[in-house]
Amino acid sequence: MPPRKSKGAVSRKASGQPKKAASAYAFFVQDNQASVKVDLGDGKKGLLGQKSKALSGMWREMDEEDKEPYAAKAATDKERYKRDMEAYVASHPEAKTKKVKDTTKPKKNLTGFFFFSNKNRSKIKQDNPEKTVGDISKVLGARWGEMSDMEKAPYQADAVRDKERYEHEMDLWRKGKFNRDEEQAKVSTEEEDDDDYSDAED
């Protein structure tokens, strides 16, 4: 039975959209997967998973200098994708149709899960460079589901404060008294003041 293709890959191919740019890690895997040897005993069950673990381990142990050639390939491919997308959009006017976001509105409030995800996503990505964005979201969702109410409490408290912030800013926005740039600058200043206070305590 031939391998199943993802819906995203099928839809891109059907519409003629350019191939997505590859990451530095993807280029590393492409160059090294054939040379990775894994001991699986009898049969090939689990071969792909074992190879992925071996490759991700090799990647984590590499220094930045060794990763540089792959980073350069990724940068080149990113530029290729950008050029191809510009050409695609130019020849497909319908691709330009996109809902315009009202940038004057307050930033939407986040849930407790989103605060948890924002704090832990980079660590999971660092430990599992072979995982896709979707895979990492599943890991985060699974970990959140296993946490107790007490463990979730700090993130839920952040969510309550952020909801209050959003409702207050939306009230100002409806009255024409909200300036997103000013509010964001105010938040940044308060965060810097908090950092200075923490440093002073240390």
Describe this structure in words.
The structure is a single chain. With 202 residues, the chain is mainly alpha-helical. It has helices at residues 7-15, 24-32, 47-61, 64-91, 112-127, 133-146, 149-174, 180-201. α2 (24-32) crosses α4 (64-91) and α5 (112-127) crosses α7.
Major beta-sheet overview: none
CATH architecture of the largest domain: Orthogonal Bundle
- What is the total domain count? 2
- Quote the average pLDDT: 78
State the helix count: 8
Strand content: under 5%
Summarize the helix and strand pattern as letters. HHHHHHHH
Q: Tell me how many strands there are.
A: 0
- Roughly how many Å is the radius of gyration? 23 Å
Essential attributes:
2 domains, 69% helix, mainly alpha, disordered C terminus, DNA Binding (I), subunit A, single chain, 202 residues, 8 helices
Brief characterization of the structure:
This protein is mostly helical and 202 residues long.
What secondary-structure arrangement, pairings included, does this model have?
Elements: H1 7-15, H2 24-32, H3 47-61, H4 64-91, H5 112-127, H6 133-146, H7 149-174, H8 180-201
Helix pairs in contact: 2-4, 5-6, 5-7
